[in-house]
Amino acid sequence: MIEFRNVSLTYPNGHQGLKNINLSINDGEFVVIVGLSGAGKSTLIRSINQMVKPTAGELLIGGENTLKYSDRKLRQFRRNIGMIFQNYNLVKRSSVLRNVLAGRLGHTGTLRSILSLFSQADVRLALESLERVGIADKAYQRADQLSGGQQQRVSIARALTQQPKLILADEPVASLDPPTSHAVMKDLKRINQEDNITMIVNLHAIDLSMQYADRIIGLRNGEVVFDGPAASVSEKTFEDIYGRPIKEDDLVGDVSNG
Amino acid sequence: MDKQKRIPIIPLKQKLFTVGVLVVVLSLYAAASIFTGSSPARFMNGIPEMFNFIINDLIPPNWSYYERVFPALLETWNIALLSTSLAVVFSLPISFLAAGNINKKLWLYHPVRFALNVLRTIPDMILAVMFVAIVGLGALAGVYALFFFSLGILIKLISETVEAIDPGPLEAIRATGGNILQIIWFGALPQILPQYVSYSLYVLEINVRASLVLGFVGAGGIGLILKQQMSLFNYGNIAMIIFITFIGVTIIDTLSTSLRKRLV
User: Fold this and answer.
1) Which of A152, A180, A230, B108 is the least buried, fewest Cβ under 10 Å from its Cβ?
2) CATH 3.40.50.300 is held by the domain A2-250
3) What ipTM, to 2 d.p.?
4) What's B211's domain CATH number?
5) Which residues of chain A are within 8 Å of residue B168 when distances are taken between CB atoms?
6) Can you tell which superkingdom this protein's organism belongs to (chain A) (predicted)?
7) pTM
């Protein structure tokens, strides 16, 4: 269970990224955060694993205020949180397998990891993760030789290899074409259901949000303006969240068999 | 609306600035010419003398002198190779300390940067004189001097490469809970590897040339015999030294350049 209590975040330049957020997210939920660009979606998701640190309030995970963690405790805490980025953030010159093994770094001693002495169990886990996203055959290729969709799957495999309790995905499909977007969203949904991993995903495409989310949280100007089950959401809800009529650009397109 | 007014292609302010810069550069040039007592005329007059020197004094080289030149060139090469290799090893960790995107601890970053700036202000020749005084005449002084000299260059080049890498992978490793060494090893190092190797080879080229000169102050290598022969006005031998050095340096530069091209 993740609880935001009066969480605010002001950037050093004075911009207020989050304003007094109160939320609680249950284990195993598939939550989609929607909002226009600049609404604070990324800030909200990144404040959970403190890639950006909230400046006020409490962020309770498993009852502990994680904002008080020391550097060391924070690193241990991050081990259990997978993260997926819009631009995949793979080390392009490294092999796919090595990228996926990065998911074990938090569990591997510094010296062992630098000498690449990952245990066989870790290597097997990495390969299994790649198998689950369907690209185990690419393990020894360089990451930059893969297509965008494949690279995003590598980054999902990296997150899976952490054996996390929670996965944060920051615009995971914004750089992908519609069929690939659906495929990646299906992967995330499947992982959420099979492993009961809590999934928090930022999206701006309305149809994707409605199709894959259990629950939708709407942000505008750093504030929560909507929070409810996906089933209760209509296009009208999105118009309220976005503060403007829905446009063609807000949809990915219905290519659900991608 | 005055349509007659000319619309400038370059704004007046920018024109004035350009003219100002030109004036400053030209006056610096004039000052340099006056203070050094050199003038374009004197420069032109010197050219025929140069040809006379080459034709009358340097030609023909004393071919049999290669017996002395060759071992000295080998020593020069060894000084360059050893000092570069050591600098390549030591520069890597320090480079990460000197890169602002990796080392975010300002109390550590600023002293490291400052120390490196100081190190880089010392010319290689002064380093050589210093180490000749410390460890005595010979190749060892040259190795020390070039080690510190190349350390300065390499750290500068590598730390700036590190600062230019894609931050995405670093962020991803940080998000998995990796510590700073793991972030460097998995996220940063693969990204700078080609440049790291390329810069190392480049510094090796620089060092081969620098170590030729270091002999002048007693730090071993080919410079040592060049200085001896010059003080004896033994131009045939000097020509031979120049000839062999030219061939040696050309071979090393060509090899290193073609290697570097393949890497990046």
Assistant:
1) B108
2) yes
3) 0.71
4) 1.10.3720.10
5) 85, 87-89
6) Bacteria
7) 0.72
